[in-house]
Amino acid sequence: MSAAPAIRVRDLDFAYGRQPVLQGVHFDVNVLDFVSVIGPNGGGKSTLLKLLLGLLSPRRGTIEVFGSPPAKARLKLGYMPQRVELDPRFPVTVMDVTIMGRLGLRPTLGPYRRRDREAALAALEATDAADLRDRPFSELSGGQRQKVLIARALCGEPEILLLDEPTASLDPAVQDDLYALLNRLNDTRTILMVSHDVSMVSRFVNRVLCVNRTCVEHCVTEIPQELALLFDAREDLRLVRHDHDHTDHPPAGGACHD
Amino acid sequence: MTEFLDALGRHAFLRHALLAGVLASVASGVVGTYVVTRRITAIAGSLAHAVLGGMGAAIWLRTVHGWDWLTPLHGAVFAALLGALIIGVARTRGGDREDTVISALWAVGMAVGVLFLFLTPGYKADLMTYLFGNIVMVDPETLRLLLVLDGVILLVVALFYDPLLAVCYDEEFARLRGVRTDAVFTLLLLLVALTIVTLIYVVGVVLVIALISLPVSAVGRFSRRLWQMMLLAAALSSVLTAAGLALAYRADLPAGAVTILLAALVYVLAGAAASLRRRA
Known about the structure:
The complex is a heterodimer.
Chain A: E1 7-16, E2 19-29, E3 34-38, H1 45-52, E4 60-65, E5 77-80, H2 94-99, H3 114-126, H4 142-154, E6 160-164, H5 172-185, E7 190-194, E8 207-212, E9 214-218, E10 220-221, H6 225-230, E11 239-240
Parallel strand pairs in A: 3-7, 3-8, 5-6, 6-7
Antiparallel strand pairs in A: 1-2, 1-4, 8-9, 10-11
Chain B: H1 2-10, H2 12-37, H3 41-64, H4 72-93, H5 98-119, H6 126-132, H7 140-169, H8 171-176, H9 181-203, H10 208-220, H11 226-251, H12 255-279
Helix pairs in contact in B: 1-2, 2-7, 2-9, 2-10, 2-11, 3-4, 3-5, 3-9, 3-10, 4-5, 4-9, 6-9, 7-9, 9-10, 10-11, 10-12, 11-12
């Protein structure tokens, strides 16, 4: 059973109306992978995430999450949206936001139970945000908000974390902090993360998918010594070979092409 | 003030009016909080105006066809719930633009109401009452209906507080957690519909939207959590309707209009206070 992929995508096509967005997308994500999805804006990264969540339906091809259609496997997924989509003036505390992750694990009627509050607190502790629990969500800094949204995704006890640009618009120190957190979480959970950063991904990521109409996997290799010196020997640098052509239709397929 | 308290002791209609104001304020403070935070005041405005159609039809059936058991408020309940379902379905099916449906419901409801009132002999004068409210027309039977509506609204909010909060704050996330968000949102619209009915006698269909949104917005700057906003808004709204009634009684003015202007004044003052506090 452990050999079965967490996510399996086969021959996936998607279009908004007549505008093709994704074509021939084909890849697997294995259990405990840490995958970074990169690509230009409008290349289909967020669309791919919404397809994996079952919020959109493929025009052709199949998506399986632990062998089930995405809409049936939703409770195994922990989703962190881009925070720009949330109303900053909504009167909620950090705890109010985090505990929403428990919604699928309780009856619709009635209030959250003590079990739910404990799970939410544990998730906040896991993301180093427990001391923020009574603060209004709107008063948090960018990095603090990201941690809370990750905690919200975590407290639903997901097997896969799907994160949409978790480090967007954060300063580098906070980004490093967040990557270290995700690396810890990766010990027990598969992570698929959309990243705005095309040129550089964290050393914790073990696979990189480049999405631009179609999807190509890049190999992640250790950075050569000489290059590391040029980059001031930042130890979190790794080399991603990015040698396919974005302007034309790149070769399809999930294999490394180096 | 003492003069008004004196009058309260002497006149049952004033006591009924005061009580109606408080009952309407409880509903509008609680449900108005969802309306304001979820930003659906346009839907609330549409439902409020559509209610006139139901009231007109009820009056026509009662007067012309002798359906004596049917009161205008029953018609209002029916029209508001029907309107909420229409908007809920339009939103779920996504067949047409949502705001077109909202505007159409707004106008069609009023047109139906005006036609039925026109066809009903001797009822033309009542149009003003329904448009702008007449809180002193509240009778014990109306109070009983308001009490039932408040009970239903509070019970539903108590049972569905968490999913309602989640759907208002982040509908997509709630759906991903297995919440039937379309059903929860339609439930919210039904709550808005019932709340509007409680406000009809207090301020009338045209002014309802102000009493749903202004007290909530005024206290919103001072609330950290949704339930705090509900409590504060219900309290402020009760004070406003009572003060509006007292002022209107003293100066012999329409209570609904006075109440709305008071609410607007408090809203502006709250905004000024909040911006002063930010600068300090």
